[in-house]
Write a structure and sequence with these properties.
There is one protein chain. By secondary structure, this protein is α/β, with parallel strands linked by helices. It has eleven helices and 18 strands. The longest helix has 14 residues. The protein starts with a strand and ends with a strand.
Amino acid sequence: MPLTTRAAVVESAGAPFTLCEVVLDDPAPHEAVVRLVAAGLCHTDLGVASGGLPFPLPGVLGHEGAGVVEAVGSAVTGVAPGDHVVLSFTSCGDCRNCHGGHPAYCAAWLPLNLIGGRRADGTATVSRDGAALGGHFFGQSSFAERALVDERSLVKVDPDVPLASIAPLGCGVQTGVGAVWNVLRPAAGDTVVVLGAGAVGLSAVMAAALSPATTVIAVDRVPERLELARELGATHTVDAGRTGPGEAVAEITGGQGADGVVETTGSTAVLRQGVDALAARGTLVVVGAPPFGSEVALDVNGLLGGKRVVGLTLGDSETQTFIPALVELVKSGRLPLDRLIGVYPFADIDQAVRDMTAGRTIKPVLVF
């Protein structure tokens, strides 16, 4: 039978989140009903809510959910009722990239996760007063007390780890960590630079601190975030309001430059500075997303020293193995996500949005 639950609905582009009752469809064979315990708030949610992406509104967003499985569809085999799960992105499971262990580059990634608002077959997962709402966001739409979740979005996790402490693993944290571990893969003695000390950037700092890199440089304009970056493992910090990143990196590295750079700000000007700060054969990972159509000018001759610029989605992670490993690091205290998290009751979602936008909270987590 369809299930009634409470969700935060965005009625139109730029509108606030409104709590109201919605109805979840019956689980399809490869779906599960999850009772949400916590859900992280991400800048992608805000970008869609503002109308920056063509997601169908009114709709239910949320893509960093964590909760307990209540019911499963007839074909679900990976989880069972009572299991604790972290919710992440979904994928088709059939294309070349999915089969190759790179589901973040699924051929159907955009419609299945970000802009479709429905299942792959075109049916709606959530409705209100008989009218379909945009849903199936990242295969979950987790800004709700219960969510209808695609099986490929479900990751079974250790039930001894509090779900509010690991909800951000579904998107922001795995993106920052994956940028370092899956793309840069620092060698012994490397220098890693992280541009931007928000949730993704600080996750990259923590990942670099757990790698063989010996120099980890965090760059931001907010002194409090730079201090936190030091506490989380940065060996050096740079206040970009006072010193250009390229100049600072050159000084710290004795003119050699950075072996790896993670760009999280979404600024094309900062991206260019990051490329210029690379050492020969260095790699810059583009994580921050500026508006569609944004372009950046690069010095072509400057790239001929073997520099690489690589785009990244969701850490290029294979979630079924990557997220449980991150959970274990959180459990052991080696990935202290609690230093980033601010907890808010679900009903205070708009306050959480304001605090994140103002920079008062790095990673808001809603609790149900």
